[in-house]
Amino acid sequence: xxxxxxxxxxxxxxxxxxxxxxWYFKISKARSLTHKMNPRDREIFxxxxxxxxxxxxxxxxxxxxxxxxxxxxxxxxxxxxxNMIMLYWLxxxxxxxxxxxxxxxxxxxxxxxxxILLQLHNLQYIPIIGSKMHQY
Length: 136
Hints:
Elements: H1 2-20, H2 28-36, H3 39-44, H4 54-69, H5 77-118, H6 127-135
């Protein structure tokens, strides 16, 4: 577990430089290139408002970070997914078990204390305790 945490720490330190800083790219040359193209080339090489799929971009960037920054092969993804599913269900089971245990403990505590409280009126019939209870 410590080895995995160290790898995550190193990976975060590597990515920190790129994720924390603001990056500004000068695209004036690319824009001037589009103005110099003829209309047919503008249709073929559409550069103005390039649209891209953000989900695909994030998926590719995560796989790249995994492969190049964390030095983990992409062939281990199915094993890691199975491991994550197992840990997810273990987490759920542990939470349900803990909640059930706390509920059971509360029910037993209330039942025991409720029984004791209901039986307090019977203390007056015990000879030693009953005689002292009438004095007060």
